[in-house]
Specification:
By secondary structure, the protein is mainly alpha-helical. The chain has 13 helices and 5 strands. β1 (10-15), α1 (23-36) and β2 (41-46) form a beta-alpha-beta unit. α4 crosses α7 (128-142), α9 packs antiparallel against α12 and α10 (244-257) packs across α12. The structure holds tryptophanyl-5'AMP. Residues 12-16, 24-25, 27-29, 47, 50, 137, 140-141, 149, 151-152, 154-155, 189-191, 200-201 line the site of tryptophanyl-5'AMP. Tryptophanyl-5'AMP (TYM) binds at residues 12-16, 24-25, 27-29, 47, 50, 137, 140-141, 149, 151-152, 154-155, 189-191, 200-201.
Amino acid sequence: MEQTTEKKKRILSGIQPSGSFTLGNYIGAIRNWAKLQDDFECLYMVADLHALTVRQVPADLRARTKEATAMLLAAGIDTKESILFAQSHVPAHTQLNWILCCNSQFGELSRMTQFKDKSAKHPDNVNGGLFTYPALMAADILIYNADLVPVGQDQTQHLELARTVANRFNNAYSPTFTLPDGYITKEGAKIMSLTDPTKKMSKSDDNQNSFILMNDDRDTIVRKFKRAVTDSDGVIRFDTENKPGISNLMSIYNVFTGKSMDEIAAEFDGRGYADFKVAVGEVVADALDPINAEYEKILADKAYIDNTLKEGAQMASKLANRTLTKVYKKVGLYQI
Ligand code: TYM
């Protein structure tokens, strides 16, 4: 029998430690991260440096980095299979960031919708880091020559920029970086706000009822779903354009039950929205409850979390430094 010695493809992804994770983060990213571990060589990162593009309370950022690590472990990231680390613990990211900033164009960075949105939201703090954010994200990905990047739909423009910059660098010097592809699942790539289903579910929303947090308890989850904005048509049918609220709830139900949109429509045919909303809340709570129990246990063990991050940073640094050394040579930095 022929033996397969093919190397596993590499995955890199990250998440900002800006408060508790939302159901959108879970469905769009984290849930997939855990699933991909068997088939890929995975690196997952708490993007603490990216969080600094918005003013943070230092003690909160420290606590949230620890909490984010605990939540990723609770959600199934297994350090026997994957490398889990904090971005700021691997200095090579910021070193490559500078080189990539010098290979990113002002026009390209200006076109990023997330930059435009965040500048509008924080007009008093439109800082350089916010502007060059996608170059740091490109560095995160390219420094490991990641083949695939599992993210939600809102990150596709940043990913495209990473490819553009990688391509530009490869052409200007010599082939160096792998051009990364997005890994974006059809279901759940964009979970919408529960109070305004035309907007992405986001933890920075002022309305607490618009998002589910991964560590909301069952009652809170069900209550928020019960209040979800839908429509007055009374029919459970998937139609994102005309029925964005119901379609969003159907997407969420689909993710946790595996039922198709037709099956969901049939299951709730003739039943009211109220029944459906409770059912969605229940399946979400069923999925999040065990993760939360595990999260509380892990969070209480600071030594375990610190040790995980320390080992992760060591392993990631080894890989990252190799790429950085090559890049420094190629761009003409004097070697001693
Ligand atoms: P962040 O922290 O905003 O979000 C983390 C992940 O969650 C996804 N996501 C969603 N998916 C579906 N529906 C939603 N409503 C929703 N909200 C968030 C995001 O798409 C993302 O995948 N810049 C990144 C972090 C980052 C990164 C990287 C990602 C830094 N370096 C390198 C990949 C590769 C960010 O701010 O994600």
